[in-house]
Amino acid sequence: MGRTVTRAVGRQPAGAKVLAERLRLLADYDIVRRDEQPGVPPRVAYALTARGESLRPVLAALWRWGVRDEASWAAR
Question: Which end of the chain is more exposed for a tag (fewer CB within 10 A), N or C?
Fold first, then answer.
């Protein structure tokens, strides 16, 4: 996946504070690496660690399940 700057990830529906908390938690669990970059404003970049990369097959399987079962979810 490569590095992603918080500002690019921050376009997701979650608020900036919630997003920062979740990313810090993922860093605590060694799923992502947090690289602080000095400057004004300070920037933080994130990248998957080897442990995070190992989750790809699991997440891909979950995504395939969701896509396959999407019709039943939409009917609810």
Answer: C
For the chain, where are the E strands, in sequence order?
4-5, 32-37, 43-48
Percent over 70 (pLDDT), the chain: 79
- Tell me the whole-structure pTM to 2 decimals: 0.65
Handedness of CA 11, 23, 33, 52 (dihedral sign): negative
Strand order in the sheet with 43-48: 4-5, 43-48, 32-37
Encoded tokens for 25: 């938690």
Residue 69, classed as helix, strand or coil, is: coil
